[in-house]
Amino acid sequence: MVWGAVSYNGKILLKFVEQGVKINAKHYQNEVLTSTLIPNISTLCSDNQWIFQQDSAPAHKTKSTQQWLVENCPDFISSKEWPPSSPDLNPLDFSIRGTLEAIVNAKPHRSLESLKRMLIREWNRLQMDIVRAAIDTWRRRLALVVKHKERRFE
Question: What is the pLDDT of residues 60-70, one digit of tens each?
Answer without folding.
Answer: 999 999 999 99
